[in-house]
Design brief:
9 helices; 18% strand; two-stranded antiparallel sheet; alpha+beta; 7-stranded antiparallel beta sheet
Length: 312
Amino acid sequence: MIERKIAEIRKKNDLKPSICLYKDCCNQAINSHFLQKNGVLNSISETGFLIETSLIDPNHWRKNGKVIDFRKKGLKSVMSLKIFCNQHDSLIFKSIEGKEPKLNTYEAFLLLSYRITCAELRKKITNTEVYEELLNDDNLEGKINKYFIQNYINGFLFGCIDLNSLKFILESEIEDSHEKFVFKVFEYEILEVCASAIFSPPDSYPTVNDILGEFQNIYVHLIPRNDKLLILMGYHRDYCTPWILNYLTSWENLDRVGLEYKITELFVKYVENWAMSEPLFNSLKSVNLNKYLEYVNKINEDLNIDFNLFSK
């Protein structure tokens, strides 16, 4: 019953207008892609579709025993949310849109990181609204654990506070750069996957200036481009940890198998939404696809990743 109610609320929420997340803009948000559709997503799509990992309909959570699965999506909706209004979605990211934008620059890294930060903020806002409506539904009185749901809501609200802080820092840096972020670019032979994410390192800890440690994050963007896989990875220079430094170094000079293992670990532990081409998906072993789903549905970062999702 709870799953059905969550599904109803989410469906209603999807139809509800959302406000643009750029500063104080009050315009209605449109569907914004985490990575640009033209030049990135369409570069690995021959039929106008990609395979994306995403949340499934809550009605099927119990039946399928999982909340995340692979779904075939059209380029219009894959890796996208209502994030910015049409004006800001066009103007802010103009320099990284188009046929041949330069994506290995500091500006590109900032813009991609800003967009995924806002996407994560939108997810947190939506989840807060969904669970607040669930909590306040009189028909569910006595049928749900309100303490458990309130803890979920509190977590989402704290996440919104953290992400709003990160959003402000990125907006300021984009407008007036002071080289506050450090990033690296890795280039490898093409693997037809794409992703954009922000995540906290396992050794995140409080600092004098940041009591919650919310700024200790890694931004990562996997961009298929011209028969190459471009990987942009970076962090805020004032909020770095030893793990962050070692993690970025671990992506250097990988052979093909090493790269596939690193991407497998990244997707299992730290990236909720990513996509791949249909041919790649169809070529993967079912045992590896099932193992991936088994791992991600456990929601446990301490898992020992002992397989290569992309082995043929």
